[in-house]
Amino acid sequence: MKVLVVDDYRTTTDLLADVACSMGHAVTRAYTGKEALVAANGEGAFELILLDIGLPDMNGHELCMRLRASEKYASRRIFSLTAHDDVHERFDMSCFDGQLSKPLSLELFESLLSGKKLAEQSAP
């Protein structure tokens, strides 16, 4: 599966990418919204995208809305990734397929990568 991990904390991005790669997935890393848009507009489409809400150049909600506006990502799996509990108060999270809380459990991340239904994920 092609996976895009977007987080400005390089340690988080790199750790998640390493786990996904070890499971046999093709992973692209982005540390800003702009880098994520460039990657997303490349050849092919990502099947799973994890977006940090607190990016330095645009928030993850705006990035998700931009991705969803394209036919390429209208129905792809996009999850928010955040350490903030109040994102539902600040943003309409309905553009996401779910919300993942930091720190993200390895078991939950592996379930997401394997395509299993996530019991712990928050509904948008």
From TrEMBL:
<dbReference type="GO" id="GO:0000160">
    <property type="term" value="P:phosphorelay signal transduction system"/>
</dbReference>
<keyword id="KW-0597">Phosphoprotein</keyword>
<dbReference type="InterPro" id="IPR050595">
    <property type="entry name" value="Bact_response_regulator"/>
</dbReference>
<dbReference type="GO" id="GO:0016301">
    <property type="term" value="F:kinase activity"/>
</dbReference>
<feature type="modified residue" description="4-aspartylphosphate">
    <location>
        <position position="52"/>
    </location>
</feature>
<dbReference type="Pfam" id="PF00072">
    <property type="entry name" value="Response_reg"/>
</dbReference>
<keyword id="KW-0808">Transferase</keyword>
<feature type="domain" description="Response regulatory">
    <location>
        <begin position="2"/>
        <end position="117"/>
    </location>
</feature>
<dbReference type="InterPro" id="IPR011006">
    <property type="entry name" value="CheY-like_superfamily"/>
</dbReference>
<keyword id="KW-0418">Kinase</keyword>
<protein>
    <submittedName>
        <fullName>PAS/PAC sensor hybrid histidine kinase</fullName>
    </submittedName>
</protein>
<dbReference type="InterPro" id="IPR001789">
    <property type="entry name" value="Sig_transdc_resp-reg_receiver"/>
</dbReference>
